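Thread: "does anyone have the structure for this chain?"

Original post by V.I.:
We have the sequence but no experimental structure in hand. Need at least a predicted one for the grant figures.
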Amino acid sequence: DRARREELLAEVEAEMARVKREIRAVAPFDLFGKGKRKGEDGKGLSNPKVQAYFYDTLKCREVRKRGGGRTADEATIRRLMRTYKKARGVGQMILDFRSWAKRGDFLAEKRIDEDGRFRALYAPIAVSGRLTSQENPLGSGGNGQNPPRPPSPVREINIPEKGHVLLEWDLSRVENRLLFGMSGDRKLVREAQPGWVRDSYQDVADDLELAGRFDELFGPVTG
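Reply from O.Q.:
Generated one for you, tokens below.
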């Protein structure tokens, strides 16, 4: 649905521009990257600048990836916001901007071929057997497997041809169910059965009393 896609993309671009203005109004320096041309304003956040804001300016304790480099991905920013009050304002704005940007990725014109179809390149992952979805050799397509779910309206742009329907096939944590069934554990085998609706991850968290140990794991809230 090209008209609906363009409508949603215009909304995304407007929201990204709004959040960008808010970030620039309160951040001590520009957190956005530069455009490809000299003097051109960059559209996205600069990861090195975001890291510098949290670790060099706010002096938050550094969080590093396995390879040793520091990171400021979504999980890290949420952790910093939980630990440091001073990281919350701009931190939430950064998360909001990234959320709108991700939505925009699913609405981009470059994903659609001239005939209005979306064609991605699918390939299996050797370890799990799941399929990856990415840009095809012609440069269109992209990730078509996890567009935002409702209440986000992004999935509305996908419409079937006349006389056809779109079918969503959800294997419902298939890797977990296979492992549970192979484990031999009575509780896990029961959870592997069709119709089991409890959240196994929440059960583990409850067993380990993680909610009560949040401060112990992530540190108390500081200034």
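V.I.: this helps a lot. The mean pLDDT is 86.
O.Q.: and The helical segments are 2-26, 47-57, 74-83, 88-105, 174-183, 186-191, 200-207, 214-218.
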